[in-house]
Amino acid sequence: MDTETFGAQTFEQLLQQLNDTNYWEGELPFKHQSGQHMWHFVRVSRIDFGENVIGNLIVGTNLVDHEIRHHRVQSALDYSQRELSSILSAVGDMVCSYNVSDYNFDFISPSCLELTGYTEFEFMDHPNLFFEMILAEYRPTVEEAFKNANPNETIRLEYQILRKDGEERWVSNSLTPFEDETQKHIICALTDTTAYHNLNELKSRMIRMASHDLNNPLSTAIGFFSLLASDLEGMLNEEQKMMVENIHRSHERMANMLEELLDVEQIQARINLDLKPIDLVQLIEKILQDFTFQIQQKEHAIEFVTSHSSIIVQVDPVQIEHALSNYLSNAIKYTPPQGEILISVFADDRHVIVEFTDNGIGIPESARDKLFQPFFRVKQQGTENISGTGLGLSLIKSVIKQHRGDVYYRPESQGSTFGLWLPL
Fold first, then answer.
1. Does domain 3-67 have CATH number 3.30.450.20?
2. Residue 260 CB: number of other CB atoms within 10 A?
3. Nearest 5 degrees, angle CA 141-CA 110-CA 189?
4. What would the mean pLDDT of 20-28 be, rounded to a whole number?
5. pLDDT higher than 90, residue 163
6. Which phi-psi region, left, alpha or beta, contains residue 152 (left: φ > 0; alpha: ψ -120 to 50)?
7. What pLDDT is attached to residue 193?
8. pTM of the model
9. Which residues have CB under 8 Å from 241's CB, separation 6+?
10. CATH code, residues 92-192
């Protein structure tokens, strides 16, 4: 060590600290064999054996080499940051990291300009701008999602924003929370879905117009045919009666299809749910009462089991009742007379599960992945004369997805189980 460069007084302070604490760290100069002074970062620990000091453990790092390595690491980090920024800008989505603990943004991709009309610097300087640009009817929902987001659980939101130039845009925002040692952050990825919503609205208008234009002449045809069939009653032979019944069933099937098509469209078009706290157990009991006639007509045995006498959920009551009624209606229709239907409701701290199990003919394996697709109907022996449009399961899926839940099918040794789960 070069004590002349280091200084005798400072060296004495080093020895004093080593005597007091048995440890010292700092920078020391050493003279290289070339005569050049080289600084090292040194750690010194005293080694004791019993009550005797037997030596010192010294570990040193050449600061010149350390600076070179540090510079290389910093250069690589800077390059990675520039590369990440370029990638995020090229993707087109607005990506940002929001610090929930101090209500500021850690990062915002430059692509925010194209989506919102605001630069990343405007968002960084005024973090509330992110929430202020959300239309008032959606803002409370988004703020609540940011406030209550749980780590490792991705939340997807659809809402409208007001760009800087006054244009309204639809966005899909995917929120992924994470926590470090002291703070909570949320990674957001905003995608412009305006074109999709415009196309979807056009589709909705066309379906509503087509349904209206078809429904009026169909209602007229059904009405006049019913009058004609009534006048001809008693004058028809068996074959003619069968023809009349077939025409009547066809009219009913078309009317039901139009009604269910409109139901699916209306549910898919709804963005805001009319959420209310309801007792799911009581709702299912009410639905069972509503289907008493159909159940008795087929002489089914119904069993209803639940893990709790009362389960309160925040849902749209009309939509959830429609979905559960469709599940029960299918179980009644596709279970042979004198069949068995089990309705099960289970809840834990986070979810409630509702299942409808029957001992009917079941679903072929080849059809199971298509069950919840619109207009899909299973074609197998025993179901030819069962009326339906193929929209019921699709409607159920739309309702439950809007409630941030999901649907599923499970084959049984005899029969089927159709289920759904909802968040609590």
1. yes
2. 20
3. 35
4. 78
5. yes
6. left
7. 92
8. 0.49
9. none
10. 3.30.450.20
